[in-house]
Amino acid sequence: MEEDDENPPLAVRIEEINEDNASVSLSQSEDLRGTAGESPVGVTVITGYLGAGKSTLVNYILNAQHGKRIAVILNEFGEEIGVERAMINEGDGGALVEEWVELANGCVCCTVKHSLVQALEQLVQRKERLDHILLETTGLADPAPLASVLWLDDQLESAVRLDSIITVVDAKNLKLQLDEYRDYASFPEAFLQIAFADVVILNKIDLISREDGVPGTSDALDDLEKEIHNINALATIIRSLRCQVDLCKILDRQAYGAKNLSHLEELLEEHKSIPSRSHHDYSVRTFCINEQQPVDLTKLRSWLEDLLWEKKSNMDLYRCKGVLNVHGSDQLHTLQAVREIYEIVPARKWQQKEKQTNRIVFIGRNLDVDILGDSLRACMVLT
Ligand SMILES: Nc1nc2c(ncn2[C@@H]2O[C@H](COP(=O)(O)OP(=O)(O)OP(=O)(O)O)[C@@H](O)[C@H]2O)c(=O)[nH]1
């Protein structure tokens, strides 16, 4: 499509796909392979419960003076699409909304993967290079399938890469949403969305006031932050009014992959003291395991596959991040996993003075820290 400043680009509706071609294999994503030498375009997934402020955030990003060319993909239920579009201001202030690409058929499950890949393909094949893509998901979505589409592509030298998952939460309603389901075996999306987030925007702080009436400074906000960190200790939390946040903190975070190792190490350092629980914990929680002995990489992979794929011990692991001390290698390896997809890569040489160790943070439900610890120790090579 030729760009024309006078006429803002129209929406491109992705056709609904029928059931016959619904289960598209991930190798479809090979269509998204990048051109040699060009760095992939970052995709920020924006998720959050109904009404938390996702569109407000997208609007804010589009209108901020950053000079980036940003495209938006919406994933909303059919009837809502018109409303969504009308609510988003098409880039008055600096951002150019190049194209709207809507995923018309509901939340991002396997049927939508195909449309998503097509939508991304359409965007990255444009003549004018994009700087970033925002993918706003429906308030009901579980972000994990999205991560799997975008992350796999990274391994395929894709033209796009998952930059980060941002979850917007409503400071006024979050506690209610979490409390409602805390003791149940099934968890609402609110938990999952926080569990998968790299950044949580704690929005609508104006609706939480201290007793003296000063908005946005209440102890209740500290409590909410604790609550969020109990679920996902690795998430960066940013408080906001109408999602007005420093864009440097949310775009280009490179939360996946080994490139951003220093950030990962900082996170792991900060959270090495996450308390371990000796009993089975049914809620969504973060645990950290620290073990120094080097691991056998083959054993470690099959341990991880047992946990992520076979769901051994009924543990529901949503997210893992860590550094590994691999036997026979002078390289520090990083581990990243989102649901069943994982990646272990050598990142850099261990430094001489550095303590070589395995430090893994797990976010999930039903985690049993004893089983996790024992089974990890079984992968170690005694030196
Ligand atoms: N008081 C207050 N209202 C806000 C704030 N941020 C957003 N809102 C309002 O909250 C409502 C919902 O915001 P949206 O951005 O549409 O939320 P959403 O997550 O996109 O909503 P869905 O698409 O329905 O899931 C709108 O009326 C916003 O104006 C805030 O910080 N404070």
UniProtKB/TrEMBL annotation:
It catalyses: GTP + H2O = GDP + phosphate + H(+). SUPFAM superfamilies: Hypothetical protein YjiA, C-terminal domain (SSF90002), P-loop containing nucleoside triphosphate hydrolases (SSF52540). The keyword GTP-binding applies. The keyword Transcription does not apply. CDD domains: CobW-like. Residues 284-380 form the CobW C-terminal domain. GO terms for cellular component: cytoplasm. Keywords: Chaperone, GTP-binding, Hydrolase, Nucleotide-binding, Zinc. It comes from the Eukaryota. GO terms for molecular function: GTP binding; hydrolase activity. Belongs to the SIMIBI class G3E GTPase family. ZNG1 subfamily. This is COBW domain-containing protein 1 isoform X1. It comes from Elaeis guineensis var. tenera (Oil palm).
